[in-house]
Amino acid sequence: MGADSGLESARFITSVMHQFAESLGNAIDAKDPHTSRHSDEVAEISRVLALALGLGHHKADLIHVAGHLHDIGKIGVPDVVLGKQGPLTTREWATIRKHPEDGAAILRPVAALSTLGVVDMVLHHHERHDGLGYPHGLSGGAIPMGARIIALADSLSAMLQDRPYRRAGSFDSARREILHCSGSQFDPRVVDAFARSEAEIRAIMERAQHRPAAA
């Protein structure tokens, strides 16, 4: 196989992988009316952050795919828990906290997703820079860069959407919270990339607010 044929094959695989990931992300979002478009938003923001960090288009595309898939483990969470209006019980919270591990287990049999690091990004997207996250309490550079990026994108999207326990906040209030959590919840380098890309990310979120939810 020539170099050009190999490149076209890689592009085809990436394209199919993205389409499949987008479909799965939409399926997960459809389980909960409060999180419509969430996976799309996380994927788009993550790509912008990856490029702002200089990771290159190939790596940015993989992080984009992982963004679509980051919540796939929630497919096993009962709808009554996802949509609960009041505080979660200890058992319900433990069920929610398992979704990164469950998601990684779902994706791991797909060899390409493991080899390319997508599984690890999904597994660790709720780790924190200060080591207080889950499931493994990783900190700093021990957390895959893609997971660090998705963590910020996930939090931003969540803050700008209505949830059963609170109303959506504004972009400016979310921005202040992200800057405040630099070095604790979030990798400072990812926060700096967010600050540099703020106008582009704000535009993504404004478009998302006017985009029909996936059926």
Description of the structure:
The chain has 215 residues and is mainly α. Helix content is 62%, strand content 0%. The protein contains 12 helices and no strands. It has helices spanning 3-30, 38-52, 57-69, 79-82, 90-97, 99-107, 111-115, 118-123, 145-159, 171-180, 188-196, 198-209. It is globular. The relative contact order is 0.14.
- The helix/strand order is HHHHHHHHHHHH
- Mean pLDDT, all residues: 86
What helical percentage do the residues reach? Answer: 55-70%
Contiguous uncertain segments of 5+ residues: none
Strand content: under 5%
Shape: globular
Q: What is the fold's blueprint, element by element?
A:
Blueprint: H1 3-30, H2 38-52, H3 57-69, H4 79-82, H5 90-97, H6 99-107, H7 111-115, H8 118-123, H9 145-159, H10 171-180, H11 188-196, H12 198-209
Helix pairs in contact: 1-3, 2-3, 2-9, 2-12, 3-9, 9-10
Overview features:
mainly alpha; globular
Could you provide a short overview of the structure?
By secondary structure, the protein is mostly helical.
